[in-house]
Write a structure and sequence with these properties.
- The chain is of the alpha/beta class.
- The protein has one domain: Rossmann fold, CATH 3.40.50.
- Helices cover 26% and strands 28% of the residues.
- The protein is built from five helices and seven strands; from the N terminus they run H-E-H-E-H-E-H-E-H-E-E-E.
- The protein has a seven-stranded mixed β-sheet.
- It starts with 25 loop residues before the first helix and ends with a strand.
């Protein structure tokens, strides 16, 4: 695993041991950043289910002003902090160990602080609709912001309700990447 582009380009990141964390592939990560390349500079980025932190680190390397990494797993948080140090991006990064749904629910509707939100839960996670509902109520995402959701392409990663418009959907092997935008 490495950072693909930007100020920390080429930095080798620590990979998670075993199969507890499923890092976003270079192909998916590269495609996502190509889709949002005009929005990344000076953005505020939220990496939900951050795992190793690779996606948020890529965002900061490419010019995001700040990134908040959120994951409930202690090992993921430790790995994210180690990778932030390796990339020398500590001044732009914040890390929070928390359940993602509770974290988002703790913000008031109208509390808008992120331009881009990346959601990459474990493939068997089934609360995507709840997360999108809370974000759609005006929690965390600025008007005109975008949400990306990474899910398995085998059909196990579907969700029901979404208050967002589907801007793009791309399949990369066993992964589907959804890019969502505000209905406003």
């Amino acid at each position: 695993m490495r950072i693909i582009s930007g100020s920390a380009k080429g930095t080798r990141l620590k990979s998670p041991p075993g199969k507890k964390i499923r890092p976003t592939s270079h192909k998916v990560k590269g495609a996502f950043f190509n889709m949002i390349q005009n929005r990344i500079v000076d953005s505020r980025f939220l990496d939900l289910f951050s795992g190793s932190g690779a996606v948020g680190l890529e965002a900061m390397s490419r010019g995001a002003r700040a990134c908040l990494f959120v994951d409930r797993d202690r090992d993921s948080i430790k790995l994210t902090r180690e990778n932030i140090k390796l990339a020398k991006l500590q001044e732009k990064a914040s890390v929070r160990q928390a359940d993602v749904l509770r974290f988002i629910g703790g913000f008031s509707p109208g509390e808008k602080c992120f331009d881009i939100i990346y959601i990459d839960p474990p493939y068997l996670y089934d609360k995507i609709s709840e997360i999108l509902f809370l974000l759609g109520e005006g929690r965390l995402l600025v008007d005109g912001g975008i949400v990306a959701v990474e899910r398995p392409s085998n059909g196990n990663g579907k969700w029901g309700f979404s208050p967002f418009l589907l801007l793009r959907k791309k399949i990369y092997g066993d992964t589907i990447l959804y890019l969502l935008g505000s209905c406003k």
